[in-house]
Amino acid sequence: MAPQKIPVRVRIDRLARRDDGHLIWTGRLKRRRPYLKGFGNPARVLLEVNHEAIQVRNTCGVERCIEPHHYKVVREKPFKYDGDPRPAWRDPRVHNSGHFNECELEVIDLEVHGLIKGETTEEDVRAVGLKREMLEEIFRRARSA
User: Among 79, 81, 78, 62, which residue's Cα sits nearest to residue 70?
Assistant: First the structure.
């Protein structure tokens, strides 16, 4: 009888350790990046990314870090077929985004980005005419950044 497979999250927990705010990968590397056979970067598993058109990029500068909060997720726009939508993905790092649909989440991300960079003001965001829940989420994310 074949041995039972170990769940992926358990494998990642065994091969990673906490160190000074980082989750350091002690497992195999491929091209100087963390690598888990069958999945690629283990941060993809932690971020629940399972589509090849979605990339994860380390933003903290520590090569072996797989901490999900230290990664930027990039959803590529398909150029081959212009009518195809971007692949769907919900950020597991944001716990209360479950009641917003994809379009609303995209608007929230754009407005938060504008507020953080100083391109828009709170009055500009209120003038757009978004739902109260979306406004609260935008301001909460912008203040926490």
Answer: 62
Alpha-carbon distance of 115 to 122, in angstroms, equals: 7
Considering the entire predicted model, what is its pTM? 0.60
For the segment 23-40, what is each residue's pLDDT rounded down to a tens digit? 999 999 999 999 999 889
* Angstrom distances, CA of residue 44 to CA of 18, 65, 97, 98, 113: 18, 12, 19, 20, 23
Contacts of 97 (CB under 8 A, 6+ apart): 90, 91, 105, 137
| Rounded mean pLDDT, 60-76 | 89
**Helix/strand/coil (H, E, C) string of 81-124?**
CCCCCCCCCCCCCCCCCCCCCHHHHHHHHHHHHHHHHCCCCHHH
pLDDT at 91: 74
Amino acid letter, residue 61 = G
